[in-house]
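Whiteboard transcription, Tuesday session. T.W. wrote the structure tokens on the left side:
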């Protein structure tokens, strides 16, 4: 795709969303409470954005490729029937019959599209740590060229039912098959202290050099901490054991074959909260 610097072409405007800074905003599952009792009905909403731009997501049900709850024993249950997107006050309900720590996973398809003028795309790539995009654009002499991307969103929420466990289950501390995934190396509900080590996986392999952000959802204008993953895909954060928390990461790859987009991007998040 070629375009004049600073101008989004007519073709792009016909087929893409002209992305604002809100495009880079995070997407996550927001339970009414991350801690609950067995057999309770827990309303959830799908949230996107931060601060004044935070809102319920308007994603269509046809774009949700996967929504699964992993039980404490690791068993997976499809949750599509529990969603009713854009309801009056929520987007669905969670219901768990037994105590333990559950992980709810949601993945969209990659049919999201956006286009940005060159300077705005470069700024967005810098803010989100998208070094593959910046390196590719510099190497190909395209820093002054507008850019388009396809994108998908993936998210996990850790929900505690009943008393917190003292150990971490493998469904919490191991990858669950998402294309880009933040995996805590211990159950944030199980251990004392404020140290939370995480590992980021891309297509099943540890991802080095990704920018991971930690945000307190009650005060979500700016992240509390930002960390780059090391050579083994690890980063470590400090958090207080109260309130609701979001970890997010974004990654992209250049699309080198003929395509209407220049990059294929994934937004990934992990949320949890304390009573």
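and on the right, the sequence the group agreed on:
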């Amino acid at each position: 795709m070629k375009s004049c610097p600073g101008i989004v072409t007519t073709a792009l405007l016909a087929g893409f969303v002209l992305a604002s800074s809100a495009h880079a905003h995070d997407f996550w599952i927001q339970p009414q409470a991350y801690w609950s009792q067995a057999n309770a009905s827990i309303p959830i909403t799908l949230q996107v954005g931060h601060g004044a731009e935070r809102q319920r997501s308007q994603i269509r049900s046809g774009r949700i490729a996967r929504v699964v709850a992993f039980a404490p024993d690791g068993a997976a249950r499809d949750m599509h029937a529990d969603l009713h997107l854009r309801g009056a006050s929520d987007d669905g309900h969670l219901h768990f019959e037994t105590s333990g720590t559950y992980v709810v996973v949601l993945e969209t398809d990659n049919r999201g599209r956006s286009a940005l003028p060159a300077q705005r795309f470069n700024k967005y790539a810098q803010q989100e740590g998208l070094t593959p995009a910046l390196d590719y654009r510099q190497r190909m002499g395209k820093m002054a060229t507008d850019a388009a991307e396809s994108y998908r969103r993936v998210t996990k929420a850790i929900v505690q039912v009943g008393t917190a466990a003292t150990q971490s289950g493998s469904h919490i501390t191991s990858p669950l098959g998402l294309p880009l995934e933040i995996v805590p190396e211990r159950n944030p509900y199980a251990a004392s202290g404020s140290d939370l080590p995480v590992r980021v996986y891309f297509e099943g392999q540890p991802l080095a050099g990704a920018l991971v952000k930690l945000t307190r959802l009650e005060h979500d204008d700016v992240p509390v901490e930002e960390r780059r993953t090391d050579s083994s895909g690890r980063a470590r954060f400090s958090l207080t054991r109260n309130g609701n928390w979001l970890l997010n990461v974004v990654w992209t790859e250049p699309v080198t074959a003929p395509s209407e987009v220049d990059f294929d991007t994934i937004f990934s998040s992990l949320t949890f909260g304390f009573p």
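Someone added at the bottom: The chain has four helices and 19 strands.
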